[in-house]
Model the fold of this input.
Amino acid sequence: MSFVDREFIYFLLIFLALWHFTRGRYELKIAAMLVMSLLFYGYHRWWLILLIGAYCLADWAAALAIERAKNVSQKKLALIAGITFNLGVLAAWKYTPLLIVTINSLTGWKIPGTEAIDGWFIPMGISFYGFSGIAYMVDVYRGVVKAEPNLIRFSLFTTFFPHLVAGPILRAKEFLSHLRPGELPSKPEAPLEGTFLIARGFFKKLVLADSIAIAIDPFFADVSGASTAGVWALPYVYLYALQIYFDFSGYTDIARGLGLWFGFRWPDNFNWPYLATSVQDFWRRWHMTLSRFLRDYLYIPLGGSKYGVSRTLAALMVTMLLGGLWHGASWSFMIWGGLHGIFLCINYLWAKTSLHARFEKLKGLPAQLWTVACIALTFHAVCFAWIFFRLNSLADINSCIRKLYQFDTDKFFVGGSADAALWVILAAYALATVAAVLLSRMKPLPEAIPLFERQAFARGATWGVSGGLLILTAALQQVGQAPPFIYFQF
Done:
């Protein structure tokens, strides 16, 4: 099931009712939350419950074995076993088609059963709950958290429906510890903030992201064909950058908002990523829970920045190459990760130069101009890499890149990129965002909402804006079944 499925409305109403009527009955509440979350995940394919159940059992047992091990060797063995299970199952589901296609193309062989690849299904969210399980086992191994003795609680930590399919990637301290007796919330954490996040998330997805998709999908679907001959690719690349941001941050808003409804505050995944002044800064702002996972469980174990320049550059490249491959079974994803690895290496070397130090000391207008230049350069580097994320065929990627600088002058804005209504909606959202930032005195949402709640008018206005966004979303969303969230494929 997805947040944008019509059935989700009924599911959420039932979940809210069960959550309310089981207050004060701890075991019943935990059981109801788990059963409903499994129903959410296995709604369209019941056998997915068996898959995620196997993950829960394996990770739970491995963590207990790590904690109860009598020596370091036994701890390492249990950790290796748990990680091998997670990565092995993930690789089998996610990378088998890529492996078969690559072998066929390199050798000319025809591996039996290759025709089944066309209908290959990758379980939704398998990368997210797989990484969450790895982080949990490593944290138990490092002594950061205690192993959870109760399988039901641990299973709920893994399967709780708001974060299950596309994150945020949660750590045990951020969620599992709050599921224990005496810690399980009995009331919403911040109902106004949660409702606003949910309304904003649905607007981002159903109005902004899906409207952009309708405008740009025909171009990318035939980027090498006659229908897009001479068309300028740059506005489509810009729009795709906005689409993937609105789509993924919209999901995160809804997930975090639902978490607040049920008493849990989870970390944000996005912090104005397209205002980053470097690619390093971009990864501090984009998909932040994945970034910290890659940093803490891959980059730092590879040596991080402790062992000299060469080791640091190698760690950056390996981390980003694997991070790219995590996103999907296509070599284009690895190239995308490799590009970001190169950008990060350049960023790392540039930061060590004396010229960089001189720029950092600028004041006033020169400093502001330098910041704008850094933002523009970073944004275009990120947009260039998005081409490899959006397109899987190297021929299509080459065509798209060529059309960035080879195009007919009368085709600057044609097709979907010339849709005036789309640009009006984007401009209106940008102006509304600027107004909201100014009204909140540039404070983060968790700090701004309490300020609004202290004043009756501001509190009522915030509730009104939240309700208005939901009504506006219903009025402006595209007709028909909404396309799935982009990150569902990962």
Observations:
- Residues 192-476 form one domain.
- The chain is about 65% helix and 0% strand.
- The mean pLDDT is 91.
